[in-house]
Amino acid sequence: MTTPTAVPPRSPAAARPGKGRDVLLDLIRSGAIALVVVQHWLMPVITRDGDALVAGNALSAPGAWAWTWVGQVMPLVFFASGAAGAISWARTKAKGGDAAGWLVGRLHRLVLPVAALVVVWLPLPVVLLALGVPGQPLHLAASTVPQLLWFLVVQLILVALTPLTVALHRRSGLAVLIPLVLGAAATDVLRFAGVPLVGYVNAILVWVAVHQVGVAYADGRFAGLGRRGAALVGVAGLAATAALVGFGPYPASMIGMPGAPVSNMSPPTLCLVTLAIAQLGVLFALKPALVRFATWRPVARGLAVLAPRTMTVFLWHMSALVVGVGVLTLGVGSHTPDPFGPLWLAGAPLWIGGLLVVLVVLVRAFGSWETRSTTAGRRGASPVAVYAGLVLAAAGMLGLAARGFAPHVDAGLLAVVAEPAAWSALVAVGYLLATRPVPARLTARFRLTAPCRLTARRRLTAPRGATRSSARPARA
Predict the structure, then answer these.
(1) 3 state SS of 357
(2) What is the distance in angstroms between the CA of the first residue and the CA of the last residue of the chain?
(3) Rounded CA separation 41/374 (Å)
(4) pLDDT band at 372 (very low <50, low <70, confident <90, very high)
C-alpha cells in the first residue's frame, strides 16, 4: 500500500472501465435503489378498520429478519455516493474549481427533484379532502411519502463534507475510519445505557464511515484486494454483525420494525457498519462477474435509463404505492393477503407490475426535473451563501420528513397546508440562496470598496519616509 500524499496515489479513472464511468458503482447504486423500491412495495400489510387503514410490515413475520441482512442496502447507497462524490470532486479540482462551486452542482441534482414532489403533494391533501377522502388514510399517505427525504438530508451533509473527507483520506488513508467506528460504538453504548437521544449522533458517524469507504474505493485502495481477500473481508463483516446481534443489545432485523423497542436503522447503529463491510466484501469478490453483467447489453441499456433518474424513482415510488393502496383498499375494498402465504406470493408479481406502471408514468412526468438539472458547478460561488442554503434546504426537508404533507387533516383546509408550506419554503429559499449568483449590486459594491482596502494596506506596509508615488507598483 502506498503512502498517502497530497495527490491521490491512484487516479480515480483507473477504477472506471468503459467510457469514463465505473459500471460497478452504477450497478450498485441503481440495483440498490431498485431493491429498495421493490421492498417498500412488498412490505406494507394493509387492513381496514372502518374508514381507517392499519399498516403492518410483512418483514415482521417469523424468520423474515434474515432477509434484511441482504435487503438493507442503504449502506451500499452511501458507499456509492462517497465514491461518486470523490471522483466528481477530483475532476472539479483538476479543472481549478472550488468546493463551493462544486457543491452548487450537487445541490441541483439533489434538491431540484424534491421541488416536483412538493408541487404535487402540497395541494394534493386539500384536493383529496374536498373530494371526500377520509382523513385517516389521507394522513397516513401524506405522512409516508415524504419520510424518504431523511435520505436526502443525510446525503446533503455527506456531500458538504466530501472535500474534507477526501482531504482526510489523502492524509491518513483508511485510518480515518478508526475514530468514526469507535465513536459509533461509544454512541451505541450511551444510547443503550439510557440516553436514547444521543443515538442520533450515529446518523452522522455511521453514514460518514460508510461514505468514507466509498472515498477510499474511488482512490483505488481496494484494487489489490483480490477475490480471496475480499471474501475474507465479507466473512469478517458477517461474523462481526452476527456477534453484535448474538451477544449485544442489537435486534436481528437490520430495518426498523413496528412496535420494536430498538431499531438498527432509526437511528443507525454500529451493525450497519459491519453489515456494509460484509456486503462490500461479497461485491468486491464478485466484481469481475458483476462488471461483465453490467456491461451485458440489456443490463447496460437498463442502467443507462435508470442511473440518471435514480433520485426521481426513489422520490416517487412511495407515491405509486399510495395510488395502489388507495385503489386496493378504498376503491375495491380489499386488503393485503397474509404475508408469504399462497395468495400473497401469487399476487406479488401482479402487484409489483401494476405499481411499476404507475411509477413509469410518474417518472416520465417528473424525471426531467432531475435529468435536466446540471451537475456542473459554478465559479465564484459564495461559500457562505452555498453552505447557508444547504442548511436551510436540509432543515426544510427534515421538517417534511418528520411532519408530513398533511399533519393537521382535522383542523381545516388552511391548516392542512400551512406547516408543510413553511417547510417547503425553507427548501426553496435554501436552494435559491445556494444556487443563484450574488446580486450584481453587492458585487459592484465589493469592487468599489476592495481597491480602497488594498491601497490602505499598501500605505501601512510602505517603508517609512516613502512617498505615495514610491509606494505604488511600477507600471510596465
Answers:
(1) helix
(2) 52
(3) 31
(4) confident
List C-alpha distances in Å: 228 to 96, 197, 281, 440: 40, 41, 10, 59
C-alpha cell read off for 118: 412538493
pLDDT digits (tens, 9 = 90+) for 377-423: 566 678 999 999 999 999 999 999 999 999 888 777 777 889 999 99
For residue 314, the model assigns a pLDDT of: 96
State the Cα torsion 235-237-242-247 to the nearest 10°: 130
Residues in Cβ contact with 365 at an 8 Å cutoff, skipping those fewer than 6 apart: none
Q: How confident is the model at residue 261 (pLDDT cuts 50, 70, 90)?
A: confident
Q: What does pLDDT average to over the chain? A: 86
Phi, psi of 46 (to 5 degrees): -105, 125
Residue 354 corresponds to which cell in the numbers above? 401494476
Task: Enter the C-alpha cell of residue 178.
Answer: 478508526
| pTM for the predicted model, two decimal places | 0.85
Q: Hey, what's the cell of 212?
A: 468514507
Reading the block at residue 427, the C-alpha cell is 427548501
CB atoms within 10 A of CB 446: 10
What are φ and ψ of residue 47, in 5° steps? -125, 160
Phi, psi at 265, each rounded to 5°: -110, -35
Cβ distance 153 to 401 under 8 Å?
A: yes
Backbone angles phi, psi at 12, to 5 degrees: -55, -30
Residue type for 93, please? K
Which parts of 131-269 fold into alpha helices (H)? 135-144, 149-172, 177-192, 202-218, 226-247
Residue appearing with cell numbers 458547478:
377
